[in-house]
Specification:
The chain is mainly beta and 264 residues long. It has a single domain, classed as 6 Propeller (Neuraminidase), CATH 2.120.10.100. Helix content is 2%, strand content 52%. The protein is built from one helix and 22 strands. The strands form six sheets. Strands 1-22-19-18 form a four-stranded antiparallel beta sheet, with no helix packed on it. A four-stranded antiparallel beta sheet has the order 2-3-4-5, with no helix packed on it. Strands 6-7-8-9 form a four-stranded antiparallel beta sheet, with no helix packed on it. The chain is globular. The chain starts with a strand and ends with a strand.
Length: 264
């Protein structure tokens, strides 16, 4: 496994990730690569495969702290973190999941079936507070991978009814004592990225999850701390590392990297 990390500035550049300083989500839709930024809740950014910016996708409603994107046919889900501020203050703009299709709508999640989630809503993210970091769709259900809280040393995956927002199942997932950082459909299963609950806690790890009825297995690939999103391709994985700042005021630039990986 060989990794390559490129620093990407916030100024417009033919090879840069212009428009996004804190990329937090990435998916492929046809020839487009769509990026969400956790500091820009009214737009998604459309790039080509060389991260040349093609267009902006305006959202009908602000989704603060975008942390995940999921695609189900022609339906695109934009997922807010649902986390509090660092001081434990709830932010309503983060507690949104936006469904983009012919009839855009906001999905409000009912966490009643996850007692740990309910108890963690007033806690700060680095202290195990509620924090959605990953999303995917399977069998018509929306899957939400949590960075916090955890259930002991197990990560939590929520299965959510995409119409009512009700959590129908709260699963324990063994990710080696780490939490969800990403969840991406791949072939007939999923690739997951795990990492510490707190920021700056070290490398992130790749897992292959053949189906929800099996256990994930760790793969021989790692990513830097603060890796926010991956896009698996044949023979390699593209990943995004969080920067610090906003467009035009980028204190620490984002990172774009590629890891050679033998995927299932």
């Amino acid at each position: 496994m060989v990794g390559l990390l490129l620093a990407i500035g916030c100024a417009k550049s033919a090879e840069g990730l212009d428009g996004s300083c804190e990329p937090s989500a990435l998916l492929q839709r046809g020839e487009q690569w769509i990026v969400g930024d956790n500091e820009q809740g009214r737009h998604l950014f459309v790039y080509d495969s060389r991260f040349k910016r093609q267009a902006d996708l305006a959202l009908p409603l602000d989704v603060d702290d975008i942390e995940a994107l999921a695609l189900d046919g022609s339906t695109l889900w934009v997922v807010g973190s649902h986390s509090t501020s660092k001081k434990g203050e709830r932010r309503p703009g983060r507690e949104r999941i936006l469904r983009l299709d012919a009839n855009p709508a906001v999905l409000t999640v009912d966490f009643a079936a996850c007692p740990e989630c309910v108890a963690a809503r007033g806690e700060a993210p680095d202290k195990g507070g509620l924090n959605i970091e990953a999303a995917a769709v399977a069998n018509g259900q929306l899957l939400l991978g949590l960075r916090g809280p955890m259930r002991g040393d197990k990560a939590i995956l929520l299965v959510v009814d995409p119409t009512s927002g009700r959590v129908t199942e709260s699963r324990e997932v063994n990710l080696g004592g780490e939490a969800f950082r990403e969840l991406v459909p791949w072939k007939s299963g999923f690739l997951a990225v795990s990492g510490p609950v707190a920021d700056g806690g070290g490398a992130h790890h790749l897992w292959w999850w053949p189906s929800l009825d099996t256990a994930p297995t760790r793969r021989d690939a790692t990513f830097p701390a603060s890796t926010e999103a991956i896009l698996p391709l044949e023979g390699e994985i593209v990943y995004l590392v969080d920067g610090d700042g906003k467009a035009g005021k980028c204190v620490t630039p984002a990172g774009v990297g590629r890891v050679n990986a033998a995927l299932p």
